[in-house]
From TrEMBL:
Domain Mechanosensitive ion channel MscS C-terminal: 626-710
Name by which UniProt lists this protein: Mechanosensitive channel protein
Record-linked SUPFAM superfamilies: Mechanosensitive channel protein MscS (YggB), C-terminal domain, Mechanosensitive channel protein MscS (YggB), transmembrane region, Sm-like ribonucleoproteins
Basic and acidic residues: compositionally biased ranges: 753-766
Keywords recorded for this protein, A-Z: Cell membrane, Membrane, Signal, Transmembrane, Transmembrane helix
One Pfam assignment: MS_channel_1st
Membrane topology reported for the UniProt record: Multi-pass membrane protein
UniProt key word Cell membrane: yes
Domain Mechanosensitive ion channel transmembrane helices 2/3, chain residue ranges per copy: 511-551
Amino acid sequence: MRALSLTLGWLLIALVAFAAPAQAQPAEGSGDPAAYATLAELLEDEQSRQQLIDRLRDLADDGPAPRPETATPPSATPDAEPSLPRQLAEATSRIVSDVGDQVDNLIGVVGALFTGGLSGEGSAFDTAAFSSAAINLGLVILATFALFVGFRRLARPLFTGISQWSLNGAGLTPVLRLVLSVALAALVDVLVVALAYVGGNLIATFAIGETGELSTRASLFLNAFLVIELLKAAVRMLFSSRYEGLRLLPITAHEAAYWNRWIARLIGLVGYGLMVVVPLVNVYLAPALGQGLGTLIMFGAFLYAVAVVLKNRRRLRDAINVKANQATLAASRVSLQLFARTWHLFALAYFLMVLVLTLTRPADALPFVLFATLKTLAAVVVGMLLSSLLSQTIGRRITLSEDLRRKLPLLEPRLNSYVPNALRVIRTIILIVVVMLVLNAWGAFDLAAWYASEAGRGLVGKLVSVAVILAIAVAAWLGLASLIEHKLNPETGGGVPSARAQTLLALFRNALAITIITMTAMIVLAEIGINIGPLIAGAGVLGLAIGFGAQKLVQDIITGIFIQVENAMNTGDVVTVGGITGTAERLSIRSVGIRDLNGTYHIVPFSSVDTVSNYMRDFAYHVGEYGIAYRESIDDAIVALREAFDELVADDDHKMNILAPLEVAGVVALADSSVNIRVRIKTTPGTQWATGRAFNRLVKLHFDAKGIEIPFPHTTLYFGVGKEAEAPPANLRVMQQPFDIDGRPGGQPRSGESSRESEDDPRAKPNPEFTGDFDED
């Protein structure tokens, strides 16, 4: 037995050594079926297999001696690596050559099927053995699938319960419930596949064929069953057609059933064809036929996939566009719309790549494509779930408590403006990471090597540092701005703040924003590797140049600082600045915005301000001068003024604005037509005008009630006198007006009036005060 094992070991080494030339020229010979059968029996024997493995390891440790004729001549050694275009050209040529070889082999195999050239010389097909093996394998397949279907039916109530909890559960966000439910369902699904796999192994070992031995055929099928059904379980995680709560992708049940059925067929065709049918054909018929059959299966799967993709191109495009229109972020909407137009191109490129890899690398293409696809699906699904989780947790509108909204009224809208922007940045980072993982899965980008390099670690470290700096800056701004708003809030900041406090805190908030933005920008630039020393020096030189070239601006700022320090005016004050009187609506460090009585808005730079007249400090006065006729009693007029003030004080609308009793200064002028009496009323700041208007109304009413005349302006005509102080008489004649003020001829009574009443009408009589002496001139 030991000698036999060594002999078989050398036979295996010889087969391995000549395997490459045999595969390069598959049409020249089909191999000896007896040798393959002997090799299969050798691998089935555990002791012989271990001895063969040990022998191969010994040979690998010793290593064959290098042959001089295989050494690369010095002239053939390149001094440098080939250029990128040359590498692409060589790779393309190699791929085309490999695909051409596979197509030629397929054509040769198909031709040999009709000519009978696949059977070796002297070899005969054992129909009885083939029939027995086919029956045994069919029984194993039937038993395994029967166990799988039975276990799936037993697990159906469990799937239903998990789905209901995912849809109607409470305590977690919908995305977290969905993820947990899908994970539990996937665990149950894997357990069902594992139980069916173990049951199939037991049946194949103890019930079918020779008891206690697992045939190679059954082992091939069971291994393929485990891999393929696990892949289908992964597909069911995405397209669960029966259970709404176990479907990761947001599509309808009809769509999920269609795509689940299509992908399952494709996986079954490729998986069972390459992992079961092709190896069995290699062993029982001919390796060349198996190789050609594998190529034919891949071409058939490729054509089937292309047909399905092209058939559903528009339907899936419309479905993706519907999702794009429902997206809240503009970036997501544009990305989905772009993907809707190009998804079929990505799908066709994927299937074409799988076909090329399978034809050029038949040994390891299927595992590579399998794991790359799984990694791609995992990266995309995890990215989508993270994005959805972020949208459901922090992407919704933030609602603060009533007490916090009352204390900090601007905090909630500020958070709701910052969070969507932060969510866009996080989604962009997730998208970049997903793209890098997908490229790494397909070998286009080595993510581990890039991160291990100095450039990769440096870039990741800088990005993390910048994110931390920005987060700290935003947190600092939110905290300080909220504190300022708390001080400005009359409900929580210790009462209504003064106008000076409002102005200074508003200016401080603006200065704080500028400071935080400037410092954050400088720190971020320094963190990403930009030398900010020249920037700071340049800013100093620029400031000096501005100081010399813009003296007015400097004067504006300096004057504005002192105006604020001295509390000369605040927002809302009525002031006179630069010859303009109005309400100060906006106050900055450089200028003040004035709204005058006509509604015109004026911007007055502080450099043009010499004097600030503020009408809103502590208290104010209404100063009024009221003229009475010379014939009226001054004392009666003062009494009427006091009575008007007493009535004003009794008015509910004005009494709270009056701070002191009426001050009567007395007669201040003996004017041409009147005797002027001045009074002053002390009021709260800003109410002196309204108080004065109300007092003027009451004065007119009280003067009218007492018959005190507020005279019109009078004119005295003087014709001169002689040296003896005599005034020559002037002929005076009062002429009757042709029409009186009612439009009637002068002196005629109105209808219903007596002539006596007409005579008593003062309008029909000359003015008794219009008297005097006139000289002849």
